[in-house]
TrEMBL record:
It comes from the Bacteria. Residues 37-57 are annotated as: Disordered. SUPFAM superfamilies: Cupredoxins. The keyword Signal applies. Residues 42-57 have a biased composition (Low complexity). Keywords: Signal. Residues 54-139 form the EfeO-type cupredoxin-like domain. Residues 1-34 form the signal peptide. The keyword Ribosomal protein does not apply. This is EfeO-type cupredoxin-like domain-containing protein.
Length: 140
């Protein structure tokens, strides 16, 4: 006996399910790559930042891997900035082209604080020991 199975024709419902499955498979990688504010591979609790859209009265700057994190740090006029050196060498946070602020030497593992300028604007800064390290204090 030659038993032939009946030919199966997809229904509208099964086509819709297949379409949804294909879309889900295509969209998941895009969602994983999008900048959802979680900071990428860095846990959000370890991402230094100041709160508030125009700066906070307190801000935190971290020195890590010969870089300022974040590179652009918002803070309110006259706000306090705490700097933590997570590198294995000494660094500074010094206003470029002026004397608006200077932490002096910050030893490895140490912290320093300074007061942000009272006038709104962008204040570029550098490490005087490692001049390739650059950042901007955004006072607003």
């Amino acid at each position: 006996m030659n038993a032939r199975s009946p030919r199966h024709r997809p229904t509208r419902r099964s086509r819709a399910r297949a379409a949804v499955a294909v879309l889900a498979v295509l969209c998941l990688p895009l969602a994983a790559c999008s900048g959802g504010g979680g900071g990428g591979s860095t846990p959000s609790s370890a991402t230094p930042s100041a709160t508030g859209p125009s700066g906070s009265t307190r801000a935190t700057l971290v020195i890590r891997d010969f870089a300022f994190v974040p590179a652009d740090l918002p803070v309110a006029p006259g706000g306090r900035v705490t700097v933590t050196n997570e590198d294995s060498v000494t660094h500074t946070v010094t206003a470029a082209g002026g004397d608006a602020f200077d932490t002096g030497d910050i030893a490895p593992g140490a912290t320093a604080t300074f007061t942000a300028p009272g006038e709104r604007g962008g204040y570029p800064y550098t490490c005087t020991i490692h001049p390739s390290m650059l950042g901007t204090l955004v006072v607003g």
